[in-house]
Amino acid sequence: MKILFIACLSPKTGNNTTAERIRDYIENAGHTCELRDSAEFESSAEVAQLISQDPLFNGALAIHLFKAGRLLLDVQVPFGVIFGGTDVNEDIKIEQKCLVMEKVLKKARFAVAFTEKMKEASELFMFSQRSKVYVQPQGIQTAVAKNFCWTEFLRSADVGTARVDELRVFLLVCGLRRVKDPLYLAHVFSEWHCQDPLNVLIIIGPKIDPVFSAEVESVIQRTAGVYMAQERSQRELHAAMRKCFALVNSSISEGMSAAILEAMHLSVPVLARDIPGNAAIVQHGITGLLYSSPQDFVDQSQRLMSDCELRKTLVRSGKDYVEEHHNLKQEQETYQRLVATLQ
User: Fold this and answer.
1) How many CA atoms lie within 13 A of 110 on its CB side?
2) What is the pLDDT of residues 181-215, one digit of tens each?
């Protein structure tokens, strides 16, 4: 089979990594998979024309019901969809987008949700299609760059390294766009840093939204204790994660944060904003810590700093959770089985 796979492919983002991993699964099963960026197409008619010009396409796949799924509405081959997160968490609130996503889900042969909560959210706008929605958590793997230099990384972010071994670096990994809300903690963290200069927050990730990225950079330049690092390769990012004090997530909405799961797999404590997508994978006080406000973030961080047993529990339980529930082999089997139904 030859499969057309459409997804948002901004470099070094979770969507890109997920799409490439699933493409590999499809090709490992003996199929051909052509991965294309949804930004390449303006309408579903363009995708339909592409498929009609290449009759070798037997099926299609898309990540994100609205951004990519709508591009498959006019194709004449069977297709499946994978929920992205903002589709069922945010786009569902917009009537026009909801109607489009309903059409996509109705026409799709199958749909994949990363969590039960995500599946439940999809049922709000297409309850009758619940039997075609499968739950498959994201598979996680980590690899650390061997030649990574922590001191150089800190210097590149303009963090002073005079007391590098004493620093408590909180690492916020996200693509710079509004839904990730990277400045949510900036003010309170800066106040905390002024009380204890050893606490620093570093934001790292690709500049997906140029206008918003410039806004973030402007705020950070005048905010003590909060820094921005240039995006790195995944191996270098994993190396930075392993050296930090804790991984931070401050998103308004998440499908399933790969950064959170990768940190758990690397035995790094996680502090995540208490939203449905995060609460689905972070069990408060067991596999990580959830916070509901900027001040609560500081309170939970201080708790993590003062309680060595809690830290050990989070690290051990987080790693165990990822190894048990986010297994690559199981994820591969699921996608290979579902793609086979497109024949």
Assistant:
1) 18
2) 999 999 999 999 999 999 999 999 999 899 999 99
CB 88 within 8 A of CB 118: yes
**Tens-digit pLDDT profile for residues 157-178:** 999 888 899 999 999 999 999 9
User: In whole angstroms, what is the distance from residue 230 CA to residue 299 CA?
Assistant: 29
Please name the residue that has the structure tokens 């950064």: 259
Query: What is the chain's length?
Result: 343
Say what the pTM is. Answer: 0.85
Tally the C-alpha atoms within 13 A of residue 93's C-alpha that lie toward its C-beta.
5
Q: Is the pLDDT of residue 118 over 90?
A: no
